[in-house]
Amino acid sequence: MACAYVGRFAPSPTGPLHAGSLVAALASWLDARAHGGRWLVRIEDVDQPRCVPGADRLILRQLADCGLLPDAQPLWQSTRSALYQAALDDLASAGRAYPCGCSRKDIEQALAARGRPRERHGELVYPGTCRTGLHGREPRAWRFRVEPGVVRWTDRRLGAQQQDVEAEVGDFVLRRADGLWAYQLAVVVDDAQQGITQVVRGEDLADNTARQIHLQQALRLPTPGYLHTPLVLGSDGEKLSKQNGAQPLDTSEPLAALNQAAAVLGLAAHGGSVAEALAAWQRQWRDSYNPAGD
């Protein structure tokens, strides 16, 4: 019998885990365990230029130190290009993906000509230049043709959410100009192929959800539930990351690291063993977040 709940933790191996990434790992593990489900680990290494050699194995070792063991062998996105290509071919044949010859400068100039300022924290909203053809440009990337309408979903922590992807993002990239697969396509294909039913991840990724729902619908794939966890902030008030001084997670004392992550999630500190702490937090989590209604 198939398990009703399947969750995952999907780190990018751009370096070791830090305090912020452990919060997402612990939350996703607890959510799966609290509901009798399976928990998987996926190494999201499609952006090869940013990956650090050996970081994937280090991440898996850090997780194991903290007692966070997946229920199947980890999966590497870099081995799955054929699946992503098949999805892109499906979208292209349905008229939902098209080649784009625009550079970033082209997009900036097109927006300036229309008198449209940058939106969404500086991200450029694609103006649809290549929707009707390349207009003499060489193809660079592949984009997803977004249909009009507001996407609505309910986040288990943040509540009711909505986004007009066409107005706020525009047609977004599926395969980049350098030939690498974009995050949005890879994560949607992998979540469906792995049977993920609940996505538990950091709040900084909540903005991606509407785009992923668009893709799920276009590819006739199920939409999982979503829960976006609180972020750990750096000294500059921004999300903790390697760019703003996040230190590698020290798992020589795993309970101390886990207690810090648990505090961010609103869970009580525990002074016993790692196994005892994880068991206690499962009970607390079950009382707080119950996607199955049981």
Q: What report would you give on this structure?
A:
This protein is α/β, with parallel strands linked by helices and 294 residues long. The protein contains nine helices and ten strands. The chain has two domains: 6-78 and 183-236 and 263-290, HUPs (Rossmann fold, 3-Layer(aba) Sandwich), CATH 3.40.50.620; 81-151 and 160-175, Alpha-Beta Complex (Glutamyl-tRNA Synthetase, domain 3). A three-stranded parallel beta sheet has the order 1-2-3, covered by helices on one side. The protein has a three-stranded antiparallel beta sheet with strand order 4-5-8. It has a two-stranded antiparallel ribbon with strand order 6-7. The longest helix is centred in the first third of the chain and has 16 residues, at 19-34. The mean pLDDT is 91. A motif ('HIGH' region) lies at residues 11-21. Residues 8-248 form the Glutamyl/glutaminyl-tRNA synthetase class Ib catalytic domain. Its EC number is 6.1.1.-.
From the structure above, extract its key features.
single chain; alpha/beta; Rossmann fold; Glutamyl-tRNA Synthetase, domain 3; 3-stranded antiparallel β-sheet
**CATH homologous superfamily heading of the largest domain:** HUPs
- Our count of domains comes out at 2
Q: Any idea of the CATH topology of the largest domain?
A: Rossmann fold
Order of helices and strands: EHEHEHEHEEEHEHEHEHH
- Topology, number of strands: 10
CATH level 1 name of the largest domain: Alpha Beta
How many helix segments? Answer: 9
Intertermini distance:
19 Å
Unreliable runs, pLDDT <50, ≥5 residues? none
Average of per-residue pLDDT values: 91
Strand-residue proportion: 5-15%
Per CATH, the architecture of the largest domain is 3-Layer(aba) Sandwich
Radius of gyration: 20 Å
Helix content: 25-40%
Give the biggest beta sheet: 3 strands, parallel
Strand order of the largest sheet: 1-2-3
Keywords: Aminoacyl-tRNA synthetase, ATP-binding, Ligase, Metal-binding, Nucleotide-binding, Protein biosynthesis, Zinc
GO biological process, one term: glutamyl-tRNA aminoacylation
Family: Belongs to the class-I aminoacyl-tRNA synthetase family. GluQ subfamily.
GO molecular function, one term: zinc ion binding
